[in-house]
Amino acid sequence: MRDSVFSFQIVRVDLLAKSMQRKGMKMLWWQWIILGVILLGSEIIVDAQFYLVFIGAAAVAVGLVGLAPLTIPGWGQWLLFSVIAIAGMTSFRSYFHTKIRGNLPDMDAGLDGEQVTVLELIGPGEQGSVESRGTRWVAKNVGETPLEANSRARVESSVGVTLNVIAQNKNS
After folding, report:
1. Residues facing 159 on adjacent strands
2. What is the pTM of this model?
3. Residue ranges of domains in the chain
């Protein structure tokens, strides 16, 4: 039984390979457009730094070219797809990515030096809650003075997801 399934799989792969050789790996116009739409939609689900937008747009463009009364061989379609995708990414990606994404703060920079709002009384050496950038954080008071609720504190450093904070000077 296993040998027959294995040989069936070989026949299927062989037929697929022969079919692709005859077609020259040429895709129909609607296949390019479906591929492009899938790639464009994937950018919404996966943050690919806007690269999938240009790859998807290139696929849609090749699909639209396929609607014209031109005959482009399979290798020509793939070449056109590659050229459009690479040209779009190198020429326009950073501009559109910055335009759409805006100047969001870079979270990799960390919160060191930022002001946070203390949500509850935190004594020296104790842990409590603070808020920064709209998110509640666990914080440890590494200073010598207690942090009152609704007061401001400054982040000295972070260890994992715990922020080490000290009281904010009234002058700053």
Report:
1. 162
2. 0.50
3. 2-101, 107-167
From the number of C-beta atoms within 10 Å of its C-beta (0-12, 13-18, 19+), residue 11 rates as: exposed
3-state SS of the chain? Answer: CHHHHHHHHHHHHHHHHHHHHHHCCCCCHHHHHHHHHHHHHHHHHCCCCCHHHHHHHHHHHHHHHHHCCCCCCHHHHHHHHHHHHHHHHHHHHHHHHHHHHCCCCCHHHCCCCCEEEECCCECCCCEEEEEECCEEEEEEECCCCCECCCCEEEEEEEECCEEEEEECCCCC
Question: According to CATH, what is the number of the domain 107-167?
Answer: 2.40.50.140
Over residues 51-95, the pLDDT tens digits come to 999 999 999 999 999 999 888 998 999 999 999 999 999 999 888
Tell me: the pLDDT tens digits for 23-55?
567 889 999 999 999 999 998 888 888 899 999
